[in-house]
Specification:
Order of helices and strands: EHEHEHEHHHEHEHEEEEHEH
CATH superfamily of the largest domain: NAD(P)-binding Rossmann-like Domain
Helix content: 40-55%
Number of helices: 10
Bound molecules: NADPH dihydro-nicotinamide-adenine-dinucleotide phosphate
Number of strands: 11
Strand order of the largest sheet: 1-11-8-7-5-6
Distance between the termini: 47 Å
């Protein structure tokens, strides 16, 4: 039987409408517009296009958008100074630093210049550390003092809004980046799944993937996950964004896997639209924490 399609586009629309209503109420109460600042150096085409998408998403919900672009030749000190200035600016509630940073710039130093309470993409070590320390290891559950990167947060939201049980399930995450794979694995662990993280040195990836009740792919290799790697009935979350012959495809061979899986996110229309919705949510949340509410 063909899998249930987990429609991220429809969910994101629903969430954006919820957020727009909350933003209107917040503005009415506090007279403050939740605002994001996007920072980059240079004109990397993917970064330019992502910044444009963020602008459109934010302006449509009457949230604030600022773009700060340094030249490709900017020094690390200039970048750090810009991020510090925005971190101290009370009119900015969330900051995103776009990558790639110019060669020679120390990514860690730039991220550490962010105020953790404005780090709406969850890249500052304080936010990443708090996610890693979440209960039962350390921090109490439900405490809203950290931000999680928008993409994995969107993946989790898809599972939750579709009522997919996570607790006690075997989850496999393919990919261990700080922005997608690792935080997704930590979120699933937080939800009491038994989690395995795979990467480029994993041996017999297919066998590990076949153990998954929930299989997440965050690799960046078109159609790496084939039908024989998926347990019948598994839930498959595809974060991949790849282009083959001008067509956007995920890390999962969607057409074949949908015949085996129990539920699956399409690409496009799955995790992608959820990322922007979660960014709106994080910026509103940041404004609430900074201003009150
Ligand atoms: P990275 O390149 O930072 O990480 C890729 C990960 O995949 C690494 O951990 C790497 O392992 C692992 N990997 C590479 N090849 C293999 C392989 N053959 N087998 C198993 N693991 C492998 O990518 P990102 O995490 O930034 O992005 C992942 C994907 O998600 C990309 O397609 C990206 O475009 C997409 N993305 C989607 C977003 C959305 O909104 N849906 C937002 C952000 C990203 P190792 O660590 O050993 O190198």
């Amino acid at each position: 039987m063909a899998a249930q399609i987990l429609d991220g586009r429809a969910l994101a629309k629903e969430i954006r409408a919820e957020i727009a209503a909350e933003v209107a109420a917040f503005k009415e109460k506090y007279g403050v517009t939740p605002t994001i600042a996007v920072v980059r150096a240079g004109e990397d085409p993917a970064s330019v296009s992502y910044a444009n998408a963020i602008k459109k998403t934010f302006e449509k919900r009457e949230m604030g958008f600022q773009l700060h672009v340094l030249p490709e030749t900017a020094s690390q000190d200039e970048m750090v100074e810009l991020v510090r200035r925005l971190s101290a600016d009370p009119n900015v509630h969330g900051i995103i630093i776009q990558e790639p940073l110019p060669k020679g710039m120390d990514e860690a130093a730039v991220k550490e210049a962010l105020a953790p309470d404005k780090d709406v993409d969850g890249v500052h070590p304080v936010n990443a550390g708090r996610l890693a320390q979440v209960a039962p290891v350390g921090r109490p559950p439900g405490v809203l003092d950290y931000f999680v990167p928008a993409t994995p947060l969107g993946g989790l939201e898809i599972l939750k809004r579709y009522g997919i049980e996570i607790s006690g399930k075997r989850a496999v995450v393919v990919g261990r980046s700080n922005i997608v794979g690792k935080p997704m694995a930590l979120l699933l662990l937080r939800e009491n799944a038994t989690v395995t993280i795979c990467h480029s040195r994993t041996r017999d990836l297919a066998a590990v993937c076949r153990e998954a009740d929930i299989l997440c792919a965050a690799v960046g290799r078109a159609r790496l996950i084939t039908a024989d790697m998926v347990k019948p009935g598994a839930v498959v979350i595809d974060f991949g964004v790849n282009f083959v012959d001008g067509k956007m495809v995920g890390d999962v061979d969607f057409e074949a896997v949908k015949e085996v899986a129990g539920a699956i996110t399409p690409v496009p229309g799955g995790t992608g639209p959820m990322t922007n919705a979660m960014l709106l949510k994080n910026v509103l949340e940041a404004a609430k924490r900074q201003v009150g509410g």
